[in-house]
Design a protein that fits this description.
The protein is an alpha/beta fold. Helices cover 40% and strands 20% of the residues.
């Protein structure tokens, strides 16, 4: 006989009645009448083909078959309770992912998108580290350590997943363009403060800057070099938003600010400098990601592919990384 074919309500009525050997007690616990409890237990006895209670004028008493069934049901309920508690504890102890990424990329590209991950996927605790130093990723039991890096591959001792390439272009506050009666040209940059981001990747590769952009625009001999330099894109961007100069920005850190309108591109989609560097997700060379971590990786790769498709190189084919 299959357990799923037994009437569960009758089993529950029997369990309650067996504890106090009283149909009245079971009825009070279940919120039904003693007659209803009696009928459910009779249904169970008929299904099992055995009596479970000895019925007397002054009450009911478990017989040997009833005592054995009551013990088995109590044991089963204890196992169910233990399973429920284990499931709840497992839910409380969500897998942990430690993810490191360049500070400005984390602040301006990754963080605004994590709410989407939590809403659509979730199931993992994420610890974020704003760092560009190279650390070897690792699977750690139910957790993991991964890294997003900006540089030039190949990356050694890790598996690399391409996120997207990069392009550089000037951005500024809309107020800098309000009083101009003609479109800005690259030579006009001589009359503005240029905000420079100066830092090196973990590989010792220098971030492309204004020098390369001015040379590509053909005005390196007419525009003075930048006088204001910053170690983080986010710092330079704050100054650009405040109208204190023109920043040479890249898509991941600038795109959301451009969409919001606090920054604009003074040359539109012209005068774009392709960067030789790419953003890559680094994972362990071998081993298998925990399921929740694998879901995060899939989500991140899909987000990066959508961003790459919708923004980078949309107007101009990428000219190499």
């Amino acid at each position: 006989m299959k357990i799923e074919r037994l009437p569960l309500n009758a089993l529950r009525a029997f369990a309650e009645a067996a504890r106090a050997e009283s149909f009245k007690h079971a009825a009070s616990r279940l919120g039904v009448t003693p007659g209803a409890v009696s009928r459910q237990i009779k249904q169970l006895e008929d299904r099992l083909g055995v009596s479970l209670f000895a019925r007397h004028a002054n009450g009911v008493y478990l017989n040997e078959a009833g005592r054995r069934l009551a013990q088995d049901i109590d044991s089963g309920l204890e196992r169910i309770a233990a399973g429920v508690m284990a499931a709840q504890e497992s839910a409380r102890q969500a897998p942990m992912l430690t993810l490191s990424a360049p500070p400005s990329f984390m602040q301006l590209w990754l963080l605004p998108r994590l709410a989407d991950f939590d809403a659509r996927v979730g199931g993992i605790d994420i610890s974020l580290e704003a760092s560009q130093s190279l650390t070897v990723p690792a699977w750690q039991g139910d957790g993991a350590r991964l890294a997003i890096r900006y540089g030039r591959g190949p990356w050694s001792e890790v598996k690399s997943h391409h996120l997207f390439g990069d392009e550089l272009f000037p951005v500024c506050a809309p107020s800098l363009l309000e009083h101009s009666d003609r479109p800005m040209t690259p030579a006009d940059l001589a009359h503005h403060s240029l905000l420079e981001v100066c830092w090196e990747s973990s590989q010792g590769v220098a971030f492309p800057g204004w020098r390369e952009w001015l040379e590509a625009a053909g005005v390196a001999d007419r525009v003075p070099p930048p006088q204001r330099r910053y170690s983080l894109s986010g710092l330079a961007m704050d100054q650009a938003i405040a109208g204190r100069g023109i920043m040479l920005a890249n898509h991941p850190v600038a795109m959301d600010r451009l969409k919001s309108g606090v920054l604009v591109r003074p040359f539109g989609e012209r005068h774009v400098l392709a960067s030789p560097m790419t953003y890559d997700l680094l994972t362990p060379q071998s081993g298998k990601a925990p399921l929740a971590v694998a879901r995060f990786i899939d989500w991140l790769l899909n987000e990066a592919a959508a961003f790459d498709r919708d923004t980078i190189g949309k107007a101009h084919p990428r000219r190499g990384h």
